[in-house]
């Protein structure tokens, strides 16, 4: 893991604008991404522990929350709850660092940049399950249109010319 970068907070006008967005569409989008990228990779015992639990991902500086629950082996958006079973709060930058695996959740937690409230045992199960995934599912290079095409239609991808990566050297393939 890299050294913890200085905290970045979205500018107040951006956070104010984002906080006015309706909650449900954002939760539906997050759940679609979780179901596509992660749900099938979580062990059965994790799904069993999550079954029926209400979770909330709260992006502090954006003033938004994404509420969802686990229904069997999939996740579903749900209406916001005052007291979900587990709520995980951080700024947008810190969630991005976690998703890209450029930062360790424990480091963010102990520096008070990541907050878990509610069922902390459930939080540890979620953290440990995500830590155990060895897939590049949260790497933006894995989800670029070219990478998806290479996985789904390799013959077509080979016929297309290479374009510069939108991620700069970060997106360069070895």
From TrEMBL:
Single GO biological process annotation from the record: ubiquinone biosynthetic process
Pathway participation: Cofactor biosynthesis; ubiquinone biosynthesis
Keyword field: Ubiquinone biosynthesis
Keyword Manganese among UniProt keywords: no
SCP2 domain: residues covered: 50-131
SUPFAM superfamilies hit by this protein: SCP-like
Pfam families xref list: SCP2
Signal peptide: none
Classification via Gene3D superfamilies: SCP2 sterol-binding domain (3.30.1050.10)
Similarity field: Belongs to the UbiT family.
Task of the protein: Required for O(2)-independent ubiquinone (coenzyme Q) biosynthesis. Likely functions as an accessory factor.
Name this polypeptide is given: Ubiquinone biosynthesis accessory factor UbiT
